[in-house]
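User: My advisor, Dr. K., asked me to get a structural model of this assembly before our group meeting. I'm new to this, so sorry if the format is off. These are the inputs:
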Amino acid sequence: MRIVIDILICLSILFAFAGVVGMIRMPDSFMRMHSSTNITTFGVLGVLIGGILYSIIYLKDISMAIKLAALIVFYLVTSPIAAHAIGRAAYRSKTPKSPNTIVDKYGEDLEDE
Amino acid sequence: MKKTTPAAFFGTLIACYIFWLLITGQIVSIFTGNASWQILVAGGIVSIIVSLFAARFFIHKKAFHLYNPLRFLLLLFYCIVIFGWELIKANVYMAVRAFGSTKKLKPGFVKIPTRLKSDYALAMLSNCITLTPSNITVDVAEQDGENYLYVHWIDVKEKDDMEKAGDSIKGAMEPWIRRIWE
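Assistant: The format is fine. Below is the predicted structure of the whole assembly, which you can bring to the meeting.
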């Protein structure tokens, strides 16, 4: 069982690493945000699920496990709202887009208003 | 500003108190019989104050919609099985893209239609789209009674056909969310 917990935590570290590499390599700010959601979902979820299993099996502390589960709920509810607000603000403040951008329906509809 | 209805107040109160019990760990102590009455009473007072102020933002229409056990089980099943699978697929996709060539990606803002009507369902769908890497919801718009989402997609496959783009972004998520909230 210990091995499963270790694998979960290692996987989440791997995904967090991929997210950081993506944040450095991507060409524009919107694409960088895609990589950062990689960190915020799997990078955090793996650690927390590993923590839940650890606190149930080794610490025998159910209330700790419930706290971690509540943490997952709050995390999943609040973090996409931040990403959404940042993306919208970045677009409206005319952050330069990557030259590869092939379609921009949002900009077309904003001009119509 | 909207007024606070009693139903909305009690709905928020119950949710607040359940979260208080979960976070302080008292829900385990109640079953083992050594719960501290001070923590329980303090939680009740705080929940009443919070729900007096927050109920009008938290609940708009049906207050006890999610307290139906069947709906709650459906929500749990959706969160763990359907959404978990989407999350795994998208995470692996995005991790591979981060190490691969970033020059070949064709990002773009697409507009997708959605059949969901209620506020909660729309919020949940756009949050789920944002949480799966490779899509970020930028804005929600209403045109002629139909709701549309603007999504930034990291590698656009369907440029012009809204329906097809919507299907490939939303995947299995939209029917499940409609089942939960409507």
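One thing worth pointing out at the meeting: Residues 12 and 54 of chain B are 8 Å apart (CA to CA).

User: Perfect, thanks a lot.
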